[in-house]
Amino acid sequence: MTPAPNTSVSIEVMEAIRGKKQLYCQAVDTKTWADFERIALPDATMVYKHADGRIVTNVLEGQDSSQPYKFDSRDDVVAFFKTLLGPLQTVHLVDSGSFERISDDEVRAVFVMIAHSGLSTESKYGHSISGGQYHDVYKMVNGEWFLKSLEYVMSYQRL
Questions:
Q1: Where does the chain cross the membrane (predicted)?
Q2: Does residue 80 sit in helix, strand or coil?
């Protein structure tokens, strides 16, 4: 019988990646966009989907829905989030994640997430609550873990 490949991830690696995911949530919630340079690779890809596979196009009722939430670089997602999240108050909470080594320098992580968001200037469009899973791949570069790809699958949303 051929032994299964070792897909285990050390506690140190899990903690480093958890730290990156926490920093991602904090950067989004506090709008400290420069932190994305410490979180994601320049060519990181990010896509935000509904459970049925459709790409998300808005998070609040009345919001412009012409831009799909699919990005081919860190700079693209930061530019979009600056505009989208500027007037919003948000709180993102993630669990401790599950991890799988996919190569010597790459780890797949899945985090369950719940987010609350609403306009900071008025309550016209109310409040949004959503939840789902982040399916991330992190890559070791120069001794540090960085987000290589993110796929968020939203399984719950109420506007």
A1: none
A2: helix
Close Cβ partners of 127 (under 8 Å, ≥ 6 residues apart): 116, 117, 118
- Residue 93 burial (C-beta neighbours within 10 Å; 0-12, 13-18, 19+): middle
- Closest by Cα among 136, 153, 157 to 145: 136
Instruction: Indicate whether 75 pLDDT > 70.
Output: yes
- Tokens 């309550």 sit on residue: 123
**CATH fold group of domain 11-158:** Nuclear Transport Factor 2; Chain: A, (3.10.450)
pLDDT at 4 over 70: no
Q: Which residues contact 86 (CB under 8 A, 6 or more apart)?
A: 31
* pTM for the model: 0.91
What are the extents of the domains in the chain?
11-158
